[in-house]
Amino acid sequence: MTEFLQYTVNGLIAGSAYGLLALAMTLIYGIFHVPNFALGAIYALGAFVSFYVIQWLGPAYYLLSLFPIVLLAGILGILSEKIVFRPLHGAPHAAGFIGALGLYSILEGGWSVLFGPTWRSLVSPYNDVFLNLGPVSLTLQRLLLFIVCLLFALITYLLIFRTLMGKKIRASSENKEVASLLGVATDRMSSLTFVIGYVLSGIAGALIAPTALVGAGMGLTPIIKGFIVVALGGLGSVTGAIVGGLILGLGENYGAAYISSMYKDIFSFGIFLLVLLLMPQGLYKR
Amino acid sequence: MDSLKSEDRSSLLVVDRLSVNFGRLAAVSELDFNIQAQEIFGLIGPNGAGKTTVFNAITSAVPLSGGTIRFDGQDVSRLKPHQITAAGIVRVHQSANVFPETTVREHVMTGLHCRTATSVLGAVLNTPFCRKEEARGHDKAGELMALALLEDVQGQPASSLTWAQQKRLMVATALATRPKLLLLDEPVAGMNSDEIEEMLDLVAAVRKQGMTVFVIEHNMQVMMRICDRMLVMNYGRKLTEGNPEKISQDPKVIEAYLGYKQK
Amino acid sequence: MERTLLALRYPLLGLLVLLLPFLIRSNYWIYMFTLVGIYIILAGSLDLIYGYTGLASLGHGAFFGIGAYACGILQVKLGYSIIPAIVLGTLFTCAFSALSGWPMLRIKGPYFALGTLAMGSMVTIVIHNWDSLTGGVSLSGIPLPPTIEFLGLRIDFSEKLPYYYLVYFFVFLSLFLIRRLNRSRLGRAFQAIRENGDLAEALGINILRYKLISFVIASTMAAFAGGLYANYMGSIEPEIAGGHMSFNLLVMIVVGGARTLTGEIVGPLLLWFLPEFLEAAVVYRPLFYGLVLLIVIILVPAGIGGKFRSLSPRLAKWIP
Fold first, then answer.
1. Which of A35, A112, A235 faces C283 most closely, judged by CB atoms?
2. Which residue of C has its CA nearest to B113?
3. Which helix (H) or strand (E) holds B213?
4. How far away is chain C from the Cα of B216, in angstroms, using its nearest Cα?
């Protein structure tokens, strides 16, 4: 029983990171109807920035890395939206999708060149602090990951559903022409959505970094999983992304614990393919 | 089988208590009608009456919520769309529905696909059978393009044609599937009088070749000219049916269209 | 005059390929061109499903990998000789592609691309972890084809030349196969599915069936290319089945120009040799590929082949 609780906690923690990535992806999907793979590279960037901040300034300054991440992610978000996604919006035959793949490749390739091909580990001040909450044990870093992810998910949720700006974002994503006729600055809303999405991904990466290995390609599997969560939870659904992420994290950890840990990633892919086969039209029609 | 009325037994299409619901919206309710072979049968009704839904139900583009559809004696209610076409029912859409980058000739030849049988191996090896089918296909396409007045544009991509040309292309392509029943959804919408005549000539030629036509239209003059019998729908239900003369004088029909009772 | 020149395009190309080794006279370059040849077969097969049928598959590399590993394992672990190994390996992958395609091809839109990506990743993970069968990180020791004595000729595969001709024989065969398919009623079905799937279905085309035909043929070609690759390289890694390979193939087709013979040839040539000419280290490749892909998809979406063909009808006659 204790083991089950431990797996559950691990699953929820991993799931919170997936949920944040999925949230970023679903927001952007809502506007351009393209799954933005580049978010995986921003996730990796977040990890790299924390790595270097710790390396240059020391572990105590770990949380400080969030500032440059927000800045860099925001800039990259605005640039990608203007240079890649807006020109390709509405282009036929999945051009936007291909553009997203190209962007991911450029960024991942860029990190490879800038930061080198090796994988490293990074140590934050919270890595060594173990907490025992009843029968379950976890590091402070992972608790931090969980809390911050959910916090940002909540903030984003409130932003999207309870503010005027959020309403404008939703309007722009549901129907750009009508929204702009009604006076919504749709271009600015899509830039804003990108900034939010990229910042969330960068933060997720920074939080994950101390618990995993950091490398240029670290974002590929997580972003695929993020896309899986978005596909299952509903393309464009905010709650679907968060809840779906948690469920995926749980499913993955149970599978790894009770069946095989070597094939952990296969569980998410397997579950996904299974669900798709049973419902080939996609889950929720938006 | 024995519950079929005597007239049903000779009918080409028998629609019995057809219902189509989208969630709580009853688009079509308990619709009954027959179509006889080689007649031109019209379907009219105000916007939103459920006419296109009837076409969608026949071609299996939407699932039936109730009732059956029998074609040529066979129950087609549960077939997949491509099987319906193979059985002999083909439909021409209301809005432009073409293969945009395909040339007119290739477009029509695509319609022939379901009536040809060359296999993968045959195609790769370019067997005599394959070559014969291709040659016959080109001949047939030539005939249909001539019929549809599209010979001059046969090398152009479908997207470059005028609206009227595209609609005729859609008809020609549909005819290539060798249907017994042709469903035409608003064939003359958006056309000027010359284009309407060209389309009606096409429909007349089609009828002469022994095909049955089921047509939805809003243009009452056209319907009066070409239909043998008509069905009037309103709010998803049958309002009345009969020959065009009778329909045009039916007060219920006039009320449905104009929204008030005529004195 | 023009007609004879037009008809001579392909024989001239064939002659060029035949004579190339004698023009470049360098084992290294023959090696490079042989590899490019394998990529041309791969790119062509991807063009069949992506360019012609419109299926955005990000898992095409998986079939290349499975074909390579099946062929390699049969030789290394079970002692088969090359011809039965490559034939059985290809047939095995063919069956696998039919089994996996049948459910996956029902899936629509972006979900399909994601599903193929997931499948490709799963294949890579399985190959990597099932090390008792696949050798884990790499499978090595795959032998070259044995020396053949044929009509007094001695073909020794330890030299670079014979394998080059072997590969290019299959390059011509596969490109010919693709053209034949696309000019037939099957090609019409593929194009119809790509341009307007609903209309295709309404005209009596069983779209699942034809998507599957296209998918299985393409995957089988990729598997065969995998067998050729495995025997040429002598050792293979799980990554050849993964997302990076699939991505690279997609870039080749998009940049070369989908649905054109030119694209299927120029794409791989360009994307293989340009980094070489720029003397870029391997680590720059993903960056380079991504950049080229973005530039093409935003500015010249029809790719090189497509763009040149669209410039004038006369050019379109000359550029296939």
1. A112
2. C185
3. strand B212-216
4. 18
* Residues pairing with B181 in the sheet: B89, B212
CA separation for the pair C285, A113 (Å, rounded)? 10
CB distance A233 to A240 below 8 Å = yes
* B213/C284: higher pLDDT: B213
Given CB atoms, is A270 within the 8 Å cutoff of chain C?
yes
Task: Using a CB–CB cutoff of 8 Å, tell me whether C289 touches chain A.
Answer: yes
Torsions phi, psi for B260 (to 5 deg) = -150, 165
Q: How far apart are CA A229 and CA A239, in angstroms?
A: 11
CB crowding C75-87: b at 16 or more within 10 Å, else e: bbeeebebeebbe
- Give the residues of chain A that fall short of pLDDT 70: 279-286
Q: Inter-chain contact B98–C196, Cβ cutoff 8 Å?
A: yes
Q: Give the predicted TM-score (pTM) of the model.
A: 0.91
Task: Give the DSSP H or E segment for B254.
Answer: helix B251-258
Cβ-nearest to B124 among C180, C191, C192: C180
| Residues of chain C found within 8 Å of residue A278, distances taken between Cβ atoms | none
CATH number listed for the domain at residues C2-318: 1.10.3470
Give pLDDT, residue A286: 36
Contacts of B80 in chain C (CB under 8 A): 201, 206
Check if the interface score ipTM surpasses 0.85. Answer: yes
Length of chain A: 286
With helix as H, strand as E and coil as C, how does chain C read? CHHHHHHHHHHHHHHHHHHHHHHHCCHHHHHHHHHHHHHHHHHHHHHHHHHHCCCCCCCHHHHHHHHHHHHHHHHHCCCCCHHHHHHHHHHHHHHHHHHHHHHHCCCCHHHHHHHHHHHHHHHHHHHHHCHHHHCCCCECCCCCCCCEEECCEEECCCCHHHHHHHHHHHHHHHHHHHHHHHCCHHHHHHHHHHHCHHHHHHCCCCHHHHHHHHHHHHHHHHHHHHHHHHHHHCCECHHHHCHHHHHHHHHHHHHHCCCCHHHHHHHHHHHHHHHHHCCCCHHHHHHHHHHHHHHHHHHCCCHHHHHHHHHCHHHHHHCC
Is the Cβ–Cβ distance between A275 and C110 less than 8 Å?
Answer: no
List chain C residues with CB under 8 Å of B100.
Answer: 195-196
List Cβ neighbours of A70 (8 Å cut-off, separation of 6 or more): A199, A202, A203
The radius of gyration of chain A's CA atoms, rounded to the nearest angstrom, is 19
Q: pLDDT value at position B9?
A: 58
Tokens at residue B13, please? 């299409």
| Closest residue, chain A, to C120 (C-alpha) | A269
B81, B110, B123 member nearest C192 (Cβ)? B110
Question: Does residue B94 sit at the C interface (CB-CB below 8 Å)?
Answer: no
Cβ neighbour number for residue A201 with a 10 Å cutoff: 34
Sketch the domain layout of chain A as residue ranges. Answer: 2-278
Residues contacting A181, CB < 8 A, separation 6+: none
Burial class (CB within 10 angstroms; exposed 0-12, middle 13-18, buried 19+) of B135: exposed
pLDDT given at position B8: 57
- Chain C contact for A90, CB < 8 A? no
Region C276-294: mean pLDDT is 86
Of C185, C198, C217, the CB nearest to B113: C185
Mean per-residue pLDDT of chain C = 92
Sorted by where each begins, the domain ranges of chain C are: 2-318
- The shares of helix, strand and coil residues in chain B, as percent rounded to the nearest 5, are 45, 25, 35
Asked whether the beta carbons of B255 and B262 are under 8 A apart, the reply is yes
Question: In CATH, what is the architecture of A2-278?
Answer: Orthogonal Bundle (1.10)
Q: Does C191 touch chain B (CB under 8 A)?
A: yes
Q: Which token pair is C147?
A: 């020396």
Query: In whole angstroms, what is the distance from residue B49 CA to residue C217 CA?
Result: 47
